[in-house]
Design goal:
By secondary structure, the protein is α/β, with parallel strands linked by helices. The chain has 29 helices and 21 strands.
Length: 723
């Protein structure tokens, strides 16, 4: 490593006996270790909630008397010592899955680039599923001991906060993040000055500052252009995620790809494997080619070296999700770059040229990535098939099934998403080493040994916890925002913690069809208001601020929520984030997913729900097509391909209503044993957990990337250190 340093700020109020709480606050290991979180909440539970589970804010605000009190509490101190021993043991790098699986790879390393990372609600630098998947990926990589470093952005305004007006219209609100309250550390050079990299953008040099987040054993380095020396517009380049302004978008992606490579070089990293998570970071390949060309290689030789050490994951079959830039914009930003890699303009454009059906052309980031990766993959089996067809034109001599795009189905990070009480229950029945064997079906087969009464008690507790949280949320909305009473009812104050509860929470893109369940509103009302068998449905999610059709769907759902006829059983929770997501995937009974097949690349929210004993009710798209076995949940529709969306929607909606009314609701209410337990429902839960939890764990996913892609490339590549 080159000379640089980070410094964890000291918390002067912390007594020496518990001063390592400050160190723990700056390593996100605590975010997936519930007992570590209790180190803070046991000091002051109310403040822990008010600080929104932010240990830095908590430690800066906690009363000194409370800190002094716990230093005289031997039970707390024993707990503190035990948790710090667990942390220290975790941080040891010598005894991990990776060290045993590839003993000759200890001098190898991997770099992982993503435009967003969803790590915790206190760090709102993510927009949705892609970011949460990235966050789970590096947490899982830390767990198995991969020698990985990650690169992303520290957005100064994060993603927007969502407010829903009385009429149901989404309003976006932005606030500037207070970095001093976040677990981000500035990187400083030998002179104590902020470390920066420079990227040329349309004839001007823009600086980006470097920050570090510690994610277990791994560093995540974040770039931020709000730097002295940049113009005011350039200082705002990294202020928000996913701007629709193409100038801003290409500037961000150049900073991520080109600036990210330069940041790693500045820090002394020379990874053997480079992973582009989505096409946003594909300019990384061009910067690495430039390095090799500058050192004396031809473009062709440089491109081959880069290709031989690169992995690319595509996450969407939806055209709007694949970034493309007009050629005039490429001219504006890269006219000084292509001479550095010994190419003419047309040769440079050819690297990512995409001819559109209407005759136009664009510069496609996924094409650039596909052409410079040794391994490319979709994120589910069906998405792999769709991607091979979608990009078949890049390999015109190959049939679609032979296009070199494989798949690695997404998984979820168990520690992050599993409810604490379920974790304790699993600890008792799955064996003490179960967290080290999360991808082992044999371990999860022991779910059958859990007594029905114990499992049902935890499931009921989690639903009560969800409903209590929603009521308190609505109460605060009523007290502090002056919302209309109908908005408070729509926020869930009338929910019942003892009736069948369905959750639907995700990004409100049109293809996800959040309004499918409203297709026949009269039939829906008859189902949810059936005497003695009521149903309540909780909606949550954001539309991109520029997605007007998505915002119209939110409005349609919200107007249905406001109808008196639903009796408060339809709810919309605004400002969906990771905190609310945990409550929902842990607390509802059924997880609903209604994408228009085959547009859902994978999806992971249903995997989080399954881990917590929530049953999936989903279209056979993405991961659910692989996970559904007929006994571990329910399918919506069939696997037919429809050309007419209206016909597809009508068919899927009818099937949804039929299944809900004739199978799901009766199974929940009518099949009860003498002791009041829904035995058949619980059998379905157990089947769901034991078949889905190991197969769709992040541990399985990361190990699959490692064994199929990372390790083979690392073993066959030289140290990526251009002369």
């Amino acid at each position: 490593m080159n000379g640089f340093r980070t410094k964890i700020p000291s918390f002067t109020a912390l007594p020496r006996r518990i001063n390592r709480l400050g160190q723990l606050a700056y390593n996100l290991w605590w975010t997936w270790t519930p007992e570590a979180q209790r180190l803070f909440s046991r000091i002051d539970g109310d403040l822990w909630e008010k600080s929104y589970h932010n240990p830095l804010r908590f430690l800066n605000q906690v009363n000194k008397a409370r800190l002094k009190a716990v230093t005289n509490d031997r039970y707390y101190l024993d707990f503190y010592d035990r948790m710090l021993r667990s942390f220290d043991e975790y941080m040891k790098a010598g005894n991990t899955w990776f060290s045993h699986s590839c003993p000759g790879c200890q001098d190898k390393s991997m770099a992982y680039f993503s435009t967003e990372f969803g790590l915790h609600e206190t760090l709102p630098i993510y927009a949705g599923g892609l970011g949460v998947l990235s966050g789970d990926h590096i947490k899982g990589a830390s767990d198995v001991g991969l020698p990985m470093v990650a690169i992303g952005f520290l957005y100064t305004q994060g993603y927007f906060s969502q407010h829903i007006s009385e009429d149901g219209w989404q309003e976006a609100r932005y606030t500037r993040l207070k970095f001093e309250e976040l677990p981000v550390l500035p990187l400083l050079d030998e002179n104590g000055q902020p470390m920066t990299v420079s990227v040329e953008l349309a004839g001007r040099n823009v600086l980006a500052r470097l920050w570090e987040i510690r994610v277990g054993r791994l560093p995540l380095y974040l770039l931020d252009s709000d730097v002295d020396g940049n113009s005011q517009p350039d200082r705002e380049l990294t202020s928000r995620l996913y701007t629709s302004d193409l100038d801003l978008r290409i500037s961000q992606e150049m900073i991520l790809g080109i600036g990210g490579v330069r940041a790693l070089r500045l820090l002394g990293y020379h990874p053997n494997v480079w992973h582009m998570n989505e096409g946003h970071s594909a300019f990384m390949a061009l910067e690495r080619i430039r390095e090799y060309v500058t050192s004396g290689l031809t473009f062709e030789a440089a491109a081959e070296k880069v290709r031989g050490s690169t992995v690319f994951t595509t996450h969407t079959p939806v055209p709007a999700g694949n970034d493309e830039f007009p050629h005039w914009l490429i001219d504006k930003y890269f006219s000084n770059f292509w001479p550095q890699i010994k190419l003419e303009r047309e040769q440079f454009i050819d690297l990512a040229r995409n001819r559109q059906p209407w005759g136009g052309e664009s510069f496609s980031m996924p094409i650039l990535a596909l052409r410079h990766a040794a391994h490319s993959n979709g994120v589910s089996e069906l998405h792999g098939q769709v991607s091979r067809k979608m990009w078949n034109f890049l390999w015109p001599d190959l049939p679609a099934e032979e296009v070199p795009i494989t798949h690695v189905t997404n998984g979820v990070h168990t520690g992050t998403w599993l409810a604490r009480r379920l974790r304790n229950l699993y600890e008792r029945y799955l064996g003490r080493d179960w967290m080290e064997r999360l991808d082992d079906p044999e371990v999860w087969g022991r779910i059958e040994e859990i007594p029905d009464a114990d499992l049902w008690a935890v499931r009921r507790h989690l639903k009560r916890k969800l409903v209590h949280y929603m009521r308190e949320r609505a109460r605060e909305q009523w007290m502090y925002t002056g919302s209309h009473p109908i908005q408070i009812i729509g926020a869930g104050v009338l929910l019942d913690p003892y009736i069948l509860t369905i959750g639907f929470a995700r990004r409100f893109a049109t293809y996800k069809r959040a309004n499918l369940i409203l297709h026949d509103i009269d039939r829906l009302l008859s189902i949810i208001n059936k005497p003695n068998m009521p149903v309540q449905i909780i909606f949550a999610g954001k539309a991109h601020p520029a997605d007007e059709p998505g915002k119209l769907i939110i409005q349609e759902v919200y107007r249905a929520v406001k109808k008196a006829e639903n009796g408060g059983r339809l709810v919309f929770l605004e400002d969906y984030d990771m905190n609310l997501a945990r409550y929902m995937v842990q607390g509802v009974d059924v997880w609903l997913n209604t994408p228009r097949r085959p547009n859902e690349a994978s999806g992971t929210s249903g995997q989080k729900a399954a881990l917590n004993g929530v049953l999936n009710f989903s279209v056979l798209d993405g991961w659910w097509r692989e996970g559904y076995n007929g006994n571990n949940g329910w399918a919506i529709g069939d696997e037919l391909e429809y050309e007419d969306h209206a016909v597809q929607d009508a068919s899927d909606a009818k099937n949804l209503y039929d299944t809900l009314e004739n199978e799901i609701v009766p199974l929940y209410y009518r099949e009860r044993s003498a002791d009041g337990l829904p035995g058949d429902w619980l059998a379905k839960i157990k089947e769901s957990i034991c078949t889905l939890a190991p197969r769709f764990s992040m541990r399985r996913m990361v190990k699959e990337y490692a064994t199929r892609m990372y390790i083979p490339l690392a073993e066959n590549s030289e140290t990526d250190k251009p002369a």
